[in-house]
Design goal:
189 residues; alpha+beta; 5-stranded mixed β-sheet; two-stranded antiparallel sheet; 7 strands; globular
Length: 189
């Protein structure tokens, strides 16, 4: 590619990343304001959360040529306040997974009820996370993506801690990566 084409591609990636981060921050701040003012009044099933996520990601996955699979097992519910914060966490994880996955690959969104917890997993078929990034993965400015800031995972971890959930990298390797979000089912204490 010519230097001009590379500069245009870098500018496009920077613009897309900036818009995505601005949207993530705005959605998160809006949700945080709502959760401080409200009480939990209804619940979502883990399956409903994944279906909402799939609807939101469908056009992105279609455009990228990536299969988006959703799997859910067990009946588990999460109150609306925590579900409102789970959605941006899972959205960020899924968007990262889609960016890491080559065309023709797949991203799997899974929810499983286990011993009073709901475990959400987001898995991709990308190349895995480079070893030098794994240690500081949830700290800002740790990204291997062009124009990436690494802020999305840091915000996601903060949101998870706010709702007493655990967010971790469960596995990474040449066949892909898998993140785990684990939260108590039911209503917040």
């Amino acid at each position: 590619k010519s230097d001009e084409a590379v500069d245009e591609e870098d500018a496009r990636l920077l613009h897309e990343t900036t818009n995505r981060m601005q949207s993530l921050v705005e959605d998160t701040l809006s949700t945080l304001r709502e959760t401080e003012a409200e009480e939990a009044t209804y619940a979502f099933s883990a399956s409903e959360i994944l279906q909402l996520l799939k609807q939101r990601l469908r056009s992105e996955s279609d455009k990228a040529g990536i299969t988006l699979d959703v799997e859910s097992s067990g009946e588990a519910e999460i109150d609306n306040l925590r579900a409102n914060l789970i959605l941006p966490i899972l959205l960020n994880l899924a968007q990262n997974a889609m960016e890491a996955t080559p065309e023709g690959g797949s991203v799997t969104l899974r929810a499983e009820a286990r011993q009073g917890f709901v475990e959400f997993r987001v898995a991709d078929t990308g190349p895995g996370i480079p070893e030098h990034l794994r240690e500081q993965l949830f700290h800002p400015v740790q990204s291997d993506k062009p124009a990436g800031t690494g802020v999305g995972l840091a915000i996601s971890r903060e949101l998870a801690e706010r709702i007493e959930a655990e967010l971790s990298l469960e596995h990474t390797g040449p066949e892909g990566s898998r993140f785990l979000l684990r939260i108590k089912e039911g209503h917040a204490s």
